From TrEMBL:
Keyword check for Oxidoreductase: yes
Functional note: E1 component of the 2-oxoglutarate dehydrogenase (OGDH) complex which catalyzes the decarboxylation of 2-oxoglutarate, the first step in the conversion of 2-oxoglutarate to succinyl-CoA and CO(2).
CDD domains xrefs: TPP_E1_PDC_ADC_BCADC, TPP_PYR_E1-PDHc-beta_like
UniProt source species: Aquamicrobium defluvii
Cofactor(s) listed in the protein's UniProt record: thiamine diphosphate
Pfam families from the UniProt entry: E1_dh, Transket_pyr, Transketolase_C
SUBUNIT field: Homodimer. Part of the 2-oxoglutarate dehydrogenase (OGDH) complex composed of E1 (2-oxoglutarate dehydrogenase), E2 (dihydrolipoamide succinyltransferase) and E3 (dihydrolipoamide dehydrogenase); the complex contains multiple copies of the three enzymatic components (E1, E2 and E3).
Source taxon at top rank: Bacteria
InterPro entries, per the entry: DH_E1, THDP-binding, Transketo_C/PFOR_II, Transketolase-like_Pyr-bd, Transketolase_C
Protein name from the UniProt record: 2-oxoglutarate dehydrogenase E1 component
GO MF term list: oxidoreductase activity, acting on the aldehyde or oxo group of donors, disulfide as acceptor
Keywords recorded for this protein, A-Z: Oxidoreductase, Thiamine pyrophosphate
SUPFAM superfamilies registered for this protein in UniProt: Thiamin diphosphate-binding fold (THDP-binding), TK C-terminal domain-like
Length: 723
């Protein structure tokens, strides 16, 4: 007989509600503080809307009016060293976390005044939203991108589902570095349905990391109701299905949020983490600005009125009045206190237009346009005094012949020995005697606990690595095939590639991405790409492409010491080749921005990368052309060695760029344009570009070979260049 058995989640999934007695049991001072903070958030955002209407905010103002209990209730259980991030609608979370850091434990909204530090937090946050220099990020972040590490705000994100992986990274760093902290990531119903959020939750659960995933379910993503885009609208179910203790609560009730967060933190203390909190709440206004959703026709006025009748501030006010914790006079004083701090901040950031009543922003508060490109990357001062070697040094030291893959494995182990903050992350990195490429072999033999296996979720674990890098670790992430970078493109581009400049600089982003490229192996179109051009589009990345084992040793050492994100490309065609390296030395660095003249010559210049370096050397020998071959090595905008390149072009007056990859994935077009601008008067021939074809490689052997440039392609190019 067929039988049925009800299957229930392995993790707790409960609803948290409060009643009048729970308010009576809570200390009055805490309730009054939460009420005052909600009033402050409301008055702050109302002022933002006034400033927006006056044209004084450049960009959106995604206010959280109606959701104040979520931010204040969540912050109530956090310590100053606990971390948070949010998404585009994060004013209530950020302002409360900033104020909490500056508020004394015995502060009483009924009798005390804001301290200068509290007022300054309001002022600086408002300045940031207005895009002004006194802001926490110097005005670069605005309303949606906010970092104040000293207050535990490690970086909000405007990308839906972009921020949860970062919080998992914060928690990973805290765990591995022995800190007793938790991280909370805030996002809405829309982000709950995105792949990045699911990947982050799964990684946090698999690694038992102390993260609270706080879902603010306000029912609408811009104008689409939650019921239109998912059948299961109980969003906390996403946590339960991944084995994560999950708690649903009334997000309009600050005490219910407090209790849900308290239980979430207790669950983390019991299991190591993570936990989920779903707060059912309502966004009173449209996605951005001061109009109601009903003005746009996607909500009814009746629905909005029902939710406004449950206003979290009004509800708390009535509770506190009935308990005798507040009088009408106390409430008026609290309102005046909050309104006064907000008004004072706005007054410091504006001035009257001469001869009129309108306001304007004083010119001195705007960032200097001349600083537009400052802070994209660091100044590399971390390399002061670092020992460097280059190929020319091999003539004076003892050397040995070592396979590329062996040198890579030994170097990875050496850097992990020197720095306990280095961890390796990726798919299958902990198996197969060193992962699919063998690079983690030596590391696994010595530090298996720092080689972390992660699911097939490149976007998720790249985001986790970013969060870990922002919180004290130096992660090395392995991408199994170059094409998989495009599944991680959101975090590579919108995350790692932008955070330093977007948040105003002044902090490191020490992340290394190791990317394996295998265009010649017959794996087909989805496993054969060289994605270096993707990284080249975003100047927040440094790019290394080694052509020898010696270069790999020096480049990986430089990459892990660097306080900027670095991608290192590993071409599988090189793995079994042997090269000369210093005997027993895996600790030297190769400086950023240093190309190498592999073969001196005077007839023409060939700028080559990776395996094309040897192809160019072979082609020049076969053609009998005295070509000067330069291995660019460092491919990003900041790292091209124009001194070396320029000296060669001035000597030869002809230049060719040789890349193996498909033509439209080539970085050479950008380099050619730069060469034309820099050295036009020294060129006797147009800049030639040698690349593969238009199509990606396919499985067919002849088509695979035809798709890629090689020595014969370079030889044909040399003939054209010298004709």
């Amino acid at each position: 007989m067929v039988t049925q058995k009800l299957i229930t989640p392995s993790a707790e999934w409960t609803r948290i509600d409060t009643e009048a007695s729970d308010w009576s049991d809570q200390p009055a001072r805490e309730l009054v503080r939460w009420f005052g903070q909600m009033v402050l958030v409301r008055r702050f955002e109302e002022k933002l809307l006034d400033l927006e209407k006056a044209g004084l905010i450049h960009g959106p103002a995604h206010v959280s009016i109606g959701q104040e209990a979520c931010g204040v209730g969540a912050m109530s259980i956090l310590r100053y060293d606990d971390k948070i991030n949010g998404t585009h609608r994060a004013h209530h979370q950020v302002l409360t976390k900033l104020i909490n850091r500056e508020t004394a434990a015995d502060f009483d909204f009924r009798t005390d005044r804001f301290t200068p530090a509290m007022d300054d937090a309001v002022y600086r946050f408002m300045a940031e939203i207005m895009g002004l220099l006194p802001g926490y990020c110097g005005g670069r972040g605005g309303s949606m991108h906010m970092l104040a590490a000293e207050a535990g705000i490690v970086g909000t994100s405007a990308i839906i589902g972009g921020n949860p992986p970062h919080a998992v990274g914060y928690a990973l760093a805290d765990t591995l570095l022995g800190r007793d902290c938790i991280s909370v990531t805030f996002f809405g119903d829309g982000a709950t349905l995105s792949g990045g959020t699911y990947e982050a939750m799964n990684i946090a659960a698999a690694q038992s990391l102390p993260v609270i995933f706080f879902m603010e379910n306000n029912l609408y993503g811009v104008s689409t109701h939650i019921s239109e885009i998912t059948r299961e609208t109980r969003l906390a179910s996403r946590g339960a299905m991944l084995g994560i203790p999950s708690f649903e609560c009334d997000g309009m009730d600050v005490l219910a949020v407090y209790h849900a967060m308290t239980r979430a933190r207790a669950a983390i203390a019991k299991t190591g983490g993570p936990a989920v909190v779903e707060a059912l709440c309502y966004r009173y206004l449209h996605q951005s600005g001061s109009r109601s959703g009903s003005d746009f026709g996607y909500r009814t006025r009746e629905e909005e009125a029902e939710w406004r009748a449950r206003d979290p501030i009004a509800a708390a006010r009535e509770r506190l009045l009935s308990l005798g914790h507040l009088s009408e006079g106390d409430i008026a004083r609290i309102d005046d206190l909050a309104t006064g701090s907000v008004a004072a901040a706005a007054a410091r950031l504006t001035e009257p237009v001469p001869g009129g009543n309108a306001l304007r922003i004083p010119a001195a508060l705007f960032p200097d346009p001349a600083t537009r490109d400052e802070g994209i990357l660091g100044d590399l001062s971390e390399f002061d005094g670092v020992r460097t070697l280059d190929h020319g040094d091999l003539e004076r030291i003892e050397t040995e012949s070592v396979k590329f893959v062996t040198a890579a494995s030994e170097t990875l182990a050496a850097v992990m020995e020197r720095d306990s903050a280095i961890v390796v992350m990726g798919e299958d990195v902990h198996r197969l005697r060193g992962g699919v490429s063998g690079f983690t072999k030596a590391a696994l033999e010595r530090w298996p606990d720092r080689v972390l296996p992660l699911p097939i979720a490149e976007n998720g674990f790249t985001g986790v690595a970013l969060g870990a890098a922002l919180n004290g670790l130096r992660p090395i992430v392995e991408i199994m095939f170059g094409d998989f970078c495009f599944t991680a493109a959101d975090q590579i581009v919108n995350g790692v590639g932008k955070v330093r400049h977007m948040f105003g600089d002044g902090f490191p982003v020490p992340l290394v991405l190791r990317v394996r490229i295998s265009p010649h192996t017959g794996y087909g179109s989805q496993h054969s790409c060289d994605p270096s051009a993707l990284f080249g589009m975003f100047p927040g990345w440094r790019i290394f492409m080694p052509a020898t084992a010696f270069d790999y040793i020096g480049m990986l050492n430089s990459a892990v010491l660097c306080n900027d994100p670095v991608v290192v490309f590993e071409h599988t065609e090189l793995f079994q080749r042997e090269h000369r390296v210093p005997v027993g030395d895996r600790t030297f660095c190769i400086p950023f921005g240093s190309a190498r003249v592999v073969r001196p010559g005077s007839a023409c210049t060939v700028l080559a990368t990776s395996v094309m370096v040897q192809h160019a050397v072979d082609a020049a020998a076969q053609a009998g052309i005295d070509a000067e071959i330069i291995d660019l090595r460092n491919l990003d905008h900041h790292g091209i060695d124009w001194d070396c390149v320029g000296a060669s072009i001035r000597k030869t007056n002809r230049v060719m760029i040789a890349e193996q990859t498909a033509r439209l994935l080539s970085m050479g077009a950008t380099w050619a344009a730069e060469i034309q601008e820099r050295y036009f008067d020294h060129l006797d021939h147009e800049v030639l570009r040698i690349t593969g074809g238009l199509a990606a490689p396919t499985v067919s052997l002849p088509l695979n070979r035809a798709a890629l440039a090689d020595a014969s392609t370079v030889r044909e190019g040399l003939a054209r260049l010298m004709a």
